[in-house]
Amino acid sequence: MKLSMKKSLLALALAMGVGSAANAATWDVKITNLTNGNHFTPLLVTAHASTAHLYTPGIAASAALQGMAECGDLSGLLALTEVGAADADTIVNPVGTGDLLAPGASTTAMITTSATHLSIVAMILPTNDGFVGLDAMQIPTAAGTYTYFINGYDAGTEANTELKDVASSCAINQEGYPGAPSGHEGTGGSGMVGADSNTMVHVHRGVLGDSDSTGGLSDLDSTVHRWQNPIAKVTVTVN
Amino acid sequence: MRELKNRFKAQYKNTSKDRLKIGVVSILALSLAACFHNEDDDENMPVVAMYKVTVSNLTNGQPMTPVAIVVHKSGYDAWTLGGMASIGLEKLAEGGDTADFITEASANMNVSTTDVAGATPFGPGSSVMVEVKANYSNDLKLSLASMLANTNDAFTGLLSADIGSLAIGESMTMMSHVFDAGTESNTEASGTLAGPADESTAASKAYSATRDDLHDFVSVHAGVVTMDDGLTTSILDESHRWNGVAAKIMVERL
User: What is the mean pLDDT of residues B67-84?
Assistant: First the structure.
């Protein structure tokens, strides 16, 4: 009886057009930066099995994630076996090599995959270790358009000093944000409070900034660099 | 899509059971009547569903108080956005006390089961977990609430999240927003915050029956201002802020 039930379910699934895992699907993954004054570093858009995670909210960041969140460096994540090098189901920065996704701008990654889940990450500039993230979202198999609003996360690996890193190149565990492409930076800030109270990956509390461009606590501008969640919109069209 | 699949599955299951009954009756005849009768009784028994609920604190500086968990059907609303908070919700949001909130829920005929996750407040980066049982219904919903301790009357929670569509072995993950109970003015001042950021020993730092917020209704919380953003009478600093969502809630049907 069990066997016949399984068979019938399979027949039902086929009749309903449910694709089996072996059938590759194509996803158009459109990402829109919903902020007013924050840029996203090169995006990693990858399809993978349900068990893979680039990060998990509530769990400590891997060194690979830390590199992405503090410096926008995707090399560590691309070295993970569950992600792998750039290919049909792992797209590195659809904006263009090295280009940033500006406030208000959109970009679309075209993915061909037999996998079921989608993850997206990119660093938020200017932040110390903030990133925009989608963690292993199951994408429906039925053709259609699906919209997800996603949040900014804090890797929990660096204090949110909101001071510019003046070193010539970015490195992990090196204090400061690497740049503010939207401008409006100040100087001479004394720096925000110490290390994160939450050292796990958590929802970014947002930058505070201040209105003093030559002093105050922060080098960021409170009227320019703040954001509210959701920070980005992801529209997945399953073909 | 999943709903559709489940419905089809359920339909098929019913059909196959009916077919089994007919088979049993015609082939095995009356000698197994007692056995058949037992099976029939089983089918009239309600199906008990078990859910594992995990709440992870994703804020940077807000301990969360033990989480009141309510599994229910339509007809119970833990709160209404724009509506007045119940006394139970007020006590939960101002001081983290779940007792009255749970009592109010238990009195509602549409509530299946209640529980509290965590015995003490859990800090940023920590999680609490509870397993609850309820008679299965496809109308089953989950509501939960927990105070953000370093606030006047902010709480995070879920309002009637649909868990009836979960099949056994399936799970869903949600992010919870932060609400303002509307029962206490958001002064952020010493002596008014239940959590550890407030070192005052004033009894009033937890629940006070006075309702002195700008509006006496539940709304989406605008966030804390803090001394670092110019509220000089605030004892909070920028580390206590949050942005939009505060907790990750994972529900697994076991």
Answer: 98
